[in-house]
Amino acid sequence: MAGPPKDESPSELWARLSERPRPWTEFQFPGVDAAGNAFPKCKLWILTEAEMHSCRANATRVAKAMIGDAKVGIGDIGYEEMYRNEMAVEMVALCVRVFDDPKFPAFPKAERVRQKLTTDEIAVLADAYTQFRVQSCPTLADLTPAEMEAWIVVLMEGASRAPLAALSGQAQSDLLMSCVEKIKSLSTRTSSAGSPPSEPQQGHDETPPTLEDLIGESELPKPE
């Protein structure tokens, strides 16, 4: 079950993750050759943050060079569109590897990707890489109802945001909505359909749990 890590410090967990080999997967290269035959398979492997920095820097440089304005940047529609396209080119140039030996890139440089592949072919490879990255990354992308229940218990007991680092943004959103549904069910549990809520018993607070109840007042952001 993709539940929270147990009995393991963050440093120990990171050490184990760092020892993993570079994740890779087989992928059928899109398109056909001049004879109508399918291209051979390739391999996609996960890029490091240093490689992603290189992709961003090269995409910025190429986009500005193609527009011919070194001062152009965010806010210019043409630049932003060209940057996104070139970012995909740079990623494909690095993540698509030789099938027999993924240590070597399938393309000698990004310029070959830009010149030889169509927009759709680049998009297919970039999308395949993104999907594989989400599946193989150390964060948890999807949670079952049982797993969400386990995470809620951990957060209630620890009253800390720290464990949430193990979840992707989408998984965090799913977990939040699960908490909302639980709060909603708590507020309506004492009332049957079509009947007014029962009177609260003496000495019991029937108001729904607040954010402080869920994560602890000490964990709330403090005003500047």
Summary?
Helix content is 50%, strand content 5%.
Describe the structure in your own words.
The chain is mostly helical. It folds into two domains: 21-136, rbstp2171; 138-188 and 210-217. Helices cover 50% and strands 5% of the residues. It is built from eight helices and three strands, in the order H-E-E-H-H-E-H-H-H-H-H. A three-stranded antiparallel sheet has the order 1-2-3. Helix 3 crosses helix 4. The longest helix has 20 residues, at 169-188. The protein is extended, with a radius of gyration of 25 Å.
Query: Helix- and strand-based class?
Result: mainly alpha
**Using only CA atoms, what is the Rg?**
25 Å
Order of helices and strands: HEEHHEHHHHH
Count of runs of 4 or more consecutive helical residues:
8
CATH class of the largest domain: Alpha Beta
Task: Characterize the largest beta sheet: strand count, sense, and whether it forms a barrel.
Answer: 3 strands, antiparallel
Shape, principal axes of CA atoms: extended
What is the CATH-assigned architecture of the largest domain? Answer: 2-Layer Sandwich
Can you list the strand order of the major beta sheet?
1-2-3
- Would you report the number of β strands? 3
Q: Kindly estimate the percentage of residues that lie in beta strands according to DSSP.
A: 5-15%
Q: Helix proportion of residues, in percent?
A: 40-55%
CATH topology assignment of the largest domain? rbstp2171
Number of self-contained structural domains: 2
Q: How confident is the prediction overall: mean pLDDT?
A: 78
